[in-house]
C-alpha cells in the first residue's frame, strides 16, 4: 500500500472528522437506546475501555480512523486506543539504520486530537517469524551481545523520545515465552545476548526513557484448558518470577484475551473447566505485585453453531463469564478490544470457520450494529469491583 504524505493525512483527518457516516451506517452505528458508552461504564470502577485500530488511506472501508463511521464508533465507546501493527518493527524498521513512523504518526495525531489516551504496542515482538527480514539474518559481528543491546536501546529511546507523554502505557515485550516449552523463545536476538538479558535491557531502557509510562509484559496464554495452555502459563509465571528477582521494572501482565469457543459444548461447561485453574494463575500474578491489563479482547467462535442468534448468545455469555472473573480483581485495569467491528476482525482470515462465515467476536457486527457481546461487556463493567477500594 502506498503511503500518503503526512500533510495529506492531516488534511484527510480534518475531512473525516466532519464527514457523515456512509449511507445506512449512521443509524446502525448509533448508541444502543438507553445505554451508556462502554468508556463511561468502565470509568465507574476506575478503569478504561478501548480498542485497537489500524492506519488507513482516507476513504478505505476498513477499521481505521480514516473511515468516518468507524471513527465515530471509537469516539463514542473508547477512552484509549492502541495500534494493531503500526508500531511493530516490521512496520517501523525497514532496515537496521532506518525508521518509518508515518503510519503510527497519523494514528497519534488522530488520537491526541480527539482526546484519546494511547498505548504503545509493541516495542519488541519476540517471535522470530514476525521480525523484519533484515533482522532475522542480521550479523551482530564480533561482539554480538554488545551490538544487539545497542540496537535495542536505540530503538526504545527513539520511540519513547519521539512520542513522550503521548503514550502512557507500553507493551514493552510481546510473546517472549514459547507456548510449547514454556522457555524464552530462541531467536537471533536471544542468541546474541541471552533471553533474560534481552528482556531486562528492554524494560530498563523503557523505564529510563518513559518514567511516566506503565510497562507491560504482554502474552496470549489463555484460560481454556489444554497441555499447551498449561505449559505456556507455567512459563509466563517463571518469567514474571524472574523479573521480580532481578528487579526488572515490569508493572503489569498484559493478557491478550483472544478467548476461544473451540469445543462443541455448553458455555457453562467450558467455563467450569477454566475458571478454577485460571483464578489460581491470576492469584499468583497479582501475588507477585503485578497489575493486570486485558490488551486484545475478542472471541474466537470456531466451534459455535452456524445459527447467528445462537452463536452471538454463546459468544456473549462466554465473554461475560471471562470478564466477570477478570474484573473481580482490583488489580485489573484497562480493557481493550482487538477491534470493534466484525468486518475488520483478524480472526476470520487467520482461523476460518468451516462455514466460511465472518467471525462474530467483536462488539459490533459488520453493519455497525451493537451485538449481545457489546451488552455483555457493558454488564460486566456495571458489575465490576472497584479499583478504588
TrEMBL record:
Q: Name one Pfam family in it.
A: Glyco_hydro_10
Q: Write the signal peptide boundaries.
A: 1-28
- GO annotations under biological process? xylan catabolic process
Q: Note whether Hydrolase occurs among the keywords.
A: yes
Q: Which UniProt keywords apply?
A: Carbohydrate metabolism, Glycosidase, Hydrolase, Polysaccharide degradation, Signal, Xylan degradation
Q: What is its EC number?
A: 3.2.1.8
Q: Which SMART domains match?
A: Glyco_10
Q: Signal as a keyword?
A: yes
Where the record annotates domain GH10, the positions are: 59-380
Give one GO term, molecular function aspect. endo-1,4-beta-xylanase activity
According to its UniProt record, which reaction does this protein catalyse?
Answer: Endohydrolysis of (1->4)-beta-D-xylosidic linkages in xylans
Q: Which InterPro entries match?
A: GH, GH10, GH10_dom, TAT_signal
PANTHER family for the chain? BETA-XYLANASE (PTHR31490:SF88), GLYCOSYL HYDROLASE (PTHR31490)
Family from the record: Belongs to the glycosyl hydrolase 10 (cellulase F) family.
Q: What is this protein called?
A: Beta-xylanase
Organism the protein comes from: Allosphingosinicella deserti
